[in-house]
Write a structure and sequence with these properties.
Two copies of one chain form a homodimer. Chain A is an alpha/beta fold. In chain A, about 40% of the residues lie in helices and about 15% in strands. Chain A has twelve helices and twelve strands. A six-stranded parallel beta sheet of chain A has the order 2-1-3-4-5-11, sandwiched between helices. A six-stranded mixed beta sheet of chain A has the order 7-6-8-9-10-12, sandwiched between helices. In chain A, helix 1 crosses helix 2, helix 7 packs parallel to helix 8 and helix 9 packs across helix 10. The radius of gyration of chain A is 24 Å and the shape is elongated. The N terminus of chain A is likely disordered. Chains A, B: This is LacI family DNA-binding transcriptional regulator.
C-alpha cells in the first residue's frame, strides 16, 4: 500500500515553468494528447520526473472514470462524543453530506486536523472540500484556498478574507432575531448574550441582532464571549459572573449548546428556577438541548437540507460551473421547550 | 467531474477469461510491463475496452503513490444526531479512526447505506473497510467479503458466517459480567436484561453471561429483545411490560443506551425511584448515559483505542500481511453513576 510522502505538491504549473512551456503543453505531453513534438514531450517528461510531479488525481479520475473524493473539514477536533460542543452539529452534517455525496458518486472523507500540525492536504489528494462555520483566521480554509481547491462553507466564512468562498447561508441573523423575539414575548426584560470567542460569522451576526434589540428595547447590553473549548464549566462560570454583576438578568441566549447546559447547571445550583426566574435559549437543537434539565428552547437549523445544499454547491464547482456564490438554508424554526415556557 | 456508472465491476479476471490469457498477461499488457507480444497486447486492450474494464484504483495507487481510501461502514443509517441509538458510538469511532487513518496516509470515507439499496461499493473504489458490530446477516459485510476487500470488524461479527473476518474484540462477555456483578454488589436481587433484536455478538455474549449469572444466583431469567430502531419509546414499553409481569425486578441491565433512557423515563412516570427502588445500568458511556436523569452507570469501552487498533489491523491487511485474526480491546472500565448508587 502506498503512502504519499508529506511534501508540498508539485503542480502542473511548476512543471510548465521549469520546462519553459505552457501548462497546456505539459498536459498534452504527459497525457499523450494533442500535438506535441517528441523533443518537447521528452523535456516535459524529464522535468516532471525531476520535480517529482504526480498528475493531479482529480484529472486522472476524469480520464479513468473513478469517483471523486471530497473532504469534510472542521477547525474543531473531531473528538470524542460528548466532548466539544460542536461535535453534534458536525456529525449531523457529516452523516447527511456523506449520503448526498455518495448519491453523486463522490466519497466524503472525514479530515480532522492533524496533531502534528501538518496539512492533511499534503497527504490526501482530495478534489474539493466542505468546511463548517470557519472563523476569520481558519487555517484549514486558508490551506484549501491557497491550493486552489473548490471549497464550500457551511455558514458564511468569518471575516472579509474569504469573500470568494461559496457558502450555504445559515441565516444566523434571523435565527437570533427569532430567539430574542421569543424571549421577549415570554416576558424577558433583560436578556444576556453568551457567545464563543472565535471570529465566526454566526457570532458576529448574533451580536448585531442583539445590539439592534438592545437599542430598540432599552435593555442593558450584557454580552460575554468564551473560548469554545471551555465546555459546560465555561457556561457555569459565565452565568455566575453575569448574574453577580447584573442580577436583573431574566433570560440567557447562549449560542453554544454546551455553554447553555452549563448555564442551566449554575442556575439549578444557585436555586434559581428555569424558566420562572430565568429563561434559557440556545441555537443548535441537538442532543444536548434535548437532554438538558430542563430541555432547552432551540432552533431547528434543517441541517439535513443544509448538508444537501452544500453538496449540490460543491458538485457545481467540481463540474467547473461558475455557479452560485451563496445559497440560503431553509428558514430556521423555533423549537420551544420547557426552558422558556 | 466523473461519476462511475453503477454497474458490477469488471475485474481483471473477466478480461483474462474473455481474452483467453492469464491475469498476469492482462496486467503486463495494460501496464506496459513485462514481455507481451504486440498482437496479444492489442487483443487484451480491445477486450478490456469492450468489457468496460477500469484498472483497480488501489493498483493504480500502488503505482502512482496516491493515498488509499478506506470505508467506515455501518448497517445503521448515519442519521441525525439524537436519532438512532448507536450514532454516538459510531461517531466516536469515526472521529478517532479518521485521525488514525490520516496519520497512516489513508483517507477514511463515511459510507452510509444507500436508500436505493444499491451497493456503495459499486460507486466507490475503496481499498478496504472498517465495519462496526455487524450482525450475522449484515449485508454490507457480505458485500465486502464477496468482493474480496480487506475488512476489519469492530466487535466480533455475529454468527458463524464471517469466521475469517479479522476483528477487534470488544470483550462484551466480560463487560456484561462486570455490570451484573456491580448490580449484585449494590444489592440487586432480580436483574432484568434488555437487548436489541439484531444478531450481534455483543448481545449473544451478554445473554450467555446473563444466563450464567442466573444459574449461579437463582434469579429468574427475565430478558427482552427489542428492535433497535424503536428508541426511547421501546425502552419505556419494555420497562412497563417487564415490571407488570415481574414486579420483583429491582435492576435493569439495558445494553442499548437509548433504551436505557426510555426505561428511566418509565420508572419516573411510574413513581419509582432510581436507584432506591430500581437500578439501571447500560453499556456505552456516551452522551445519553451521561445526560440521562439520573445519569446512568455505564462502561468506558476505550473506543479511541479500539478505533486505533482497528486501523492498525486494517493497515496490516492492506499491506498484504496475513497478520492477526483478532486483537483485544483494552479491558472496559465501569463508570458508576447515580443510577446504581
Amino acid at each position: 500500500m502506498a503512502v504519499s510522502p508529506p511534501s508540498p505538491r508539485v503542480t502542473i504549473s511548476d512543471v510548465a515553468r521549469h520546462a519553459g512551456v505552457s501548462v497546456t503543453t505539459v498536459s498534452h505531453a504527459l497525457n499523450g494528447r494533442g500535438q506535441v513534438d517528441p523533443a518537447t514531450r521528452r523535456k516535459v517528461e524529464e522535468t516532471a520526473r525531476a520535480l517529482g510531479y504526480r498528475p493531479n488525481r482529480h484529472a486522472q479520475r476524469l480520464r479513468t472514470g473513478g469517483s471523486s473524493m471530497i473532504a469534510l473539514m472542521s477547525s474543531m477536533p473531531f473528538a470524542v462524543a460528548g466532548g466539544p460542543s460542536r461535535l453534534g452539529f458536525l456529525m449531523e452534517v457529516a452523516s447527511v453530506a456523506a449520503s448526498s455525496a455518495l448519491e453523486r458518486g463522490m466519497a466524503m472523507v472525514l479530515v480532522p486536523p492533524l496533531e502534528s500540525g501538518q496539512s492533511p492536504l499534503d497527504i490526501l489528494d482530495v478534489d474539493g472540500a466542505l468546511i463548517i462555520e470557519p472563523s476569520a483566521d481558519d487555517r484549514q480554509l486558508a490551506d484549501l484556498t491557497a491550493r486552489g481547491l473548490p471549497v464550500v462553507s457551511i455558514g458564511r466564512p468569518g471575516g472579509d478574507a474569504h469573500g470568494a468562498v461559496p457558502y450555504v447561508d445559515l441565516l444566523s441573523g434571523p435565527t437570533v432575531q427569532m430567539l430574542l423575539a421569543h424571549l421577549q414575548a415570554r416576558g424577558a426584560r433583560q436578556i444576556a448574550l453568551v457567545l464563543g470567542a472565535a471570529q465566526r460569522t454566526s457570532y458576529a451576526q448574533a451580536e448585531l441582532a442583539y445590539r439592534q434589540m438592545v437599542d430598540a428595547s432599552g435593555m442593558d447590553h450584557i454580552a460575554l464571549r468564551l473560548d469554545e473549548a471551555r465546555g459546560e464549566a465555561g457556561g457555569r462560570d459565565a452565568a455566575r459572573l453575569l448574574l453577580a454583576a447584573h442580577p436583573q438578568i431574566d433570560a440567557f441566549l447562549v449560542l453554544v449548546d454546551v455553554f447553555a447546559v452549563g448555564v442551566a447547571q449554575h442556575l439549578q445550583q444557585a436555586g434559581l428556577r428555569v424558566p420562572e426566574d430565568v429563561m434559557i435559549a440556545t441555537r443548535y437543537d441537538g442532543i444536548r438541548a434535548r437532554t438538558c434539565e430542563p430541555p432547552l428552547t432551540a432552533v431547528n437549523l434543517h441541517l439535513d437540507q443544509v448538508a444537501r445544499l452544500a453538496i449540490d454547491l460543491l458538485f457545481e464547482r467540481l463540474r467547473g460551473n461558475a455557479g452560485r456564490q451563496a445559497v440560503q438554508s431553509p428558514m430556521p424554526e423555533l423549537v420551544a421547550r420547557a426552558s422558556t415556557r
